[in-house]
Amino acid sequence: MTKRARAARPRSSRTAKTGSRVPQKEGWHGWDDYADFYDWENARTLGQRDVPFWLRMTAAVDGPVLELGCGTGRVTMPLAHAGVRIVGVDRSAEMLARARRRVRRQRRGVAPTLVRADIRALPLPDASIPMVMAPYGILQSLVNDRDLKATLKDVARVVEPDGIFALELVADLPAWGEYSRKVRMRGQRAPGGSRITLIESVRQDRDRGVTVFDQEFVETLGRTTRRRAFTLTFRTLTVPAMLRRLAAAGFRAEALLGDYDGGPLGLEAEAWIIVARRV
Ligand SMILES: C[S@@+](CC[C@H](N)C(=O)[O-])C[C@H]1O[C@@H](n2cnc3c(N)ncnc32)[C@H](O)[C@@H]1O
Questions:
Q1: Is residue 90 included in any domain, yes or no?
Q2: How many domains does the chain have?
Q3: Nearest Cα to Cα of residue 272 among 175, 183, 191, 186
């Protein structure tokens, strides 16, 4: 078995009530199944609100920008259109397939380089990247300290001396209320004429420090109904905790921001953004 295959095997734990084994999901699990719905759901939530921030951050970078977890290219493509040289890394073949479709339709700017890989082991040379960006909580897909440490170590390896590492943590995860099989969206129109209902359950596992989303998408077109159920797991990491880990990996925080306009980080912050420099 290769190292990666070993890492990919889900660990399991016993439930308190029944003592039966339940597989523990890793942070990269679920994204292949989510891919068909990601852009559709996202257009109804965050949309493109963070894109101008990433455009400003990358505008003056001289050299390639590395995006951790580029997904369907939601952020990658507007940057590429604006002429930013960008390398997007993602582990999900299905998410990347959508990004690649966008690249095929691209008519301006610079075509991004898309690489299927795990961000815990970046397939890039040492000190080759002047800026690394981690939008929209991708580092919260690393659901334990070992995985986060491995990733920060590798980011520190690939970024140039004095290079920038900018990241966003999704601010509302730690306080997300728990619920079971709530209909979050009902019968909403999707491309191709189908209608989608999203049924969602959320659990806070305070022992593991993770928030678990069980999602079921029900898509109806005429008399055909298709159901897709999967689980996404995110680490509920605070800004101070992340700052300590960044410092240990050789980064110095230069700015803490609470929104995409550069506002201060406070209790009501809509986003937790850290801009750090390799020391
Ligand atoms: C929240 S999405 C962010 C996507 C995109 N950057 C955006 O803002 O829309 C997370 C992405 O990270 C990817 N991902 C999660 N864990 C990963 C890992 N260990 N290595 C590489 N990609 C990972 C998933 O496949 C998914 O596409």
A1: yes
A2: 1
A3: 175
Measuring from atom 25 of ligand 1, which residue has the nearest CA?
Answer: 92
HEC string of 197-243 equals EEEEEEEEECCCCEEEEEEEEEEEECCEEEEEEEEEEEECCCHHHHH
Which helix H or strand E contains 99, and what residues bound it?
helix 93-105
User: Distance between CA atoms of 43 and 62, rounded to whole angstroms?
Assistant: 31
Quick one: average pLDDT of 34-38? Answer: 94
Are 251 and 44 contacting, i.e. CB atoms less than 8 angstroms apart?
Answer: no
265 vs 267: CA distance, rounded Å:
7
Q: Residue 268's pLDDT band (boundaries 50, 70, 90)?
A: confident
- 120 within ligand 1 shell (Cβ under 6 A): yes
| Predicted local confidence at residue 104, as pLDDT | 98
Block residue for tokens 């003592």: 19
Nearest atom in ligand 1 to 70's CA: 6
| Residue 28 within a domain | no
How confident is the model over 197-206, as pLDDT tens digits? 999 999 999 9
Does residue 50 sit within a domain?
Answer: yes
Give the confidence band of 23 by pLDDT, cuts at 50, 70, 90: low
- pLDDT per residue as tens digits for the range 214-251: 999 999 999 999 999 999 999 999 999 999 999 999 99
29 C-beta closer than 6 A to ligand 1: no
Q: Which amino acid is at 149?
A: K
State the residue range of the domain holding 151. 41-171+237-278
CATH number of residue 91's parent domain: 3.40.50.150
Place of tokens 């909580």: 137
63 lies in some domain:
yes
